[in-house]
Amino acid sequence: MTSDEPRRVLQRGLWFEEMEVGTIYDHRPGRTVTEADNVLFTTLTMNTQPLHLDQAASEQLPPFHDRLVNSMFTLSTLVGLSVAQLTQGTIVANLGFSDIAFPHPVRHGDTIYAETLVLDKRESSSRPGEGVVTFEHTARNQHGDVVATATRKTLVRMAPA
Description:
Blueprint: E1 24-32, H1 35-44, H2 50-53, H3 55-59, H4 71-86, E2 91-101, E3 111-123, E4 130-140, E5 146-157
Antiparallel strand pairs: 1-3, 2-5, 3-4, 4-5
Domain MaoC-like: 20-139
Protein name: MaoC family dehydratase
Family: Belongs to the enoyl-CoA hydratase/isomerase family.
């Protein structure tokens, strides 16, 4: 590279060494959920729950009286919103999810925003050059209501030597 050429940076997630326990990462932009998103995801995953697909039936179901966004779509979006900033190109594998909760429903037209707290990290004892990172993901709607939480363990690459 000559001095005339600008520095070029490829977007990627963070290497194991760059993640700091106790740091919260805010993921932006958010994602506005449409009716089409909900119907497509629900039918692709064979979830025939009327609460997601049938407006007339949902109107009769307390306490919501309306269709709600499939909670698995909400979880997938929550994790997906974190990828570009945290794990794009640096993750080896998801090792597991726990403590998943949906304290507030998501409705068509809601916008989901995500944040991630790095809970823990350690070098892998069996996989040189990789480490285990535990994330606590939180999704909020446009009003700030928490709509989903999840803890996720991942295997992440260390920076190349």
